[in-house]
Structure formats: structure tokens, C-alpha cells
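Listing S7. Sequence submitted for prediction.
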Amino acid sequence: MNVRETPSNKATPTTAAGLAANLDRKKLKITNTGGTALYVNFSGTAATSSVYDEKIAAGATLTVENYVGECTASASIRYVEFT
């Protein structure tokens, strides 16, 4: 039997255009810190204005519960993972 121990409610912020999958993630907050709308893709494929899953307005934050996969954005944004 494999048991995974993780701390509760530990937040890890990262500023990048891509974020790797994390099996311990419980919540993901994505904040657009830029001055224009950005695009996010949850498939790992590069996000563009024509290929994206979510569009995040300037200064807005998207919160995703129980998402453990990878994520890419059309520019660097701030990710906060809760594990």
C-alpha cells in the first residue's frame, strides 16, 4: 500500500508561463498580473488567442478546485498551488 503524506493548505506561488502537473495539488489560483487579457490552456498545449481553455482579464484571478494537471499561459502569470 502506498501512502502519500502532504502538508495541509501549503501555498506555493510561481510566476511563469507554464506549470507542471502536481498530484498533491488541491487548488490552483491563476492571476493575470499583466495589463492585457491572457489565455490559459489546461492540455499543456501552448495557449493562444485561438487555442485556449480560459481567457483571464487583466488583473483577474481564476480559481480551479482539485486540478492536478499541467497548465500553460500565453505569457507569464502568477500561479498559486495549494497542496
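Caption to Listing S7: primary sequence and predicted C-alpha cells for the chain studied. The chain is about 0% helix and 45% strand. The longest strand covers residues 71-82.
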